[in-house]
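Below is one record:
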Amino acid sequence: MFRFTVALYISVAICLAQPDLQRQQAEQQVAAQLQQAPNNISLLLRLASMKTADAGSLRDKDSRTAAFDEIQSYYDRVLSLDANNIPALNGLGILAWMRVSPDLRAARTQLQMSSSAPGPIPDRSVRAVLNSAHAATISNSIGYLQRVLSSDPQNNDATGYLNLLYRSKADLEDTPEAAAGDIATADGFVQKTLEIARLKGGSATSFAPSTGLSGGPAPPSGRIRISGEAQAANLIQKVDPIYPETAQRARIQGTVKFDAVIARDGTMMNLRVVSGHPMLVQAALESVKRYLYKPTLLNGEPVEVMTTVDVDFVLP
């Protein structure tokens, strides 16, 4: 049993390092369909979603920017066909946060600002560079998300990302008073997100980590633990597993459980198999490693999350 477990963990590590050919093939298939039907909103949204999941794992800034530009082009095409398309408007809000947050974190680290320090960023020259790069993106995306709320006031994706974007906006303000106003607005969206959770039958604690409500300082490791059920509420990109044909023929079903570490930008950072049938593990891994979550905030700063992820396989 020990040998099998070790071998299984090694195989999982190898799978994480290999190119996701299945994912690439799926994207190529959707792209080919889109060439035949360039105004198909469903295909545009699907490809944008796939590309968003891929972009979250990119570490090279130029590659990431190019990927973000491509994703935005798909959402822009959707809005040219349907100006009030909620998935596209929400997608642009998420995309803005993914563009802005790495640079703001880097600037705060460079200036040795504590995680609890309010904006604005004190160095005027650094702030000017960030404003030039991101102010328009933040402003436009706030407008997109407000359009979502005008059509769907109970959309907690929009309120969650408005919270994050207003906190980003506070870092770029020229005066503490203006930054304080942004933080107050962000806090209002925190409360709105909690209200929506209660109306929808959720719990406040399941939304608190992603909206900056968790109290106390971040742990020394920079990670917090959140239950799998609560963290699932923050999942914005889920990739369904492909049921292995060999497992179906063998009438094998069940749940694969992972211990997971989610990075500050919401991408999957580390996975460890806890349990599950060997014939289902790889398929589960291929889907979970492409999950994308809302960034989790503690005292206004993104942190890594330790959680569990279950992938169910049920025979038809």
In short: The chain is about 60% helix and 15% strand. Strands lie at 223-225, 235-237, 254-262, 268-275, 292-293, 296-298, 301-313. The radius of gyration is 20 Å.
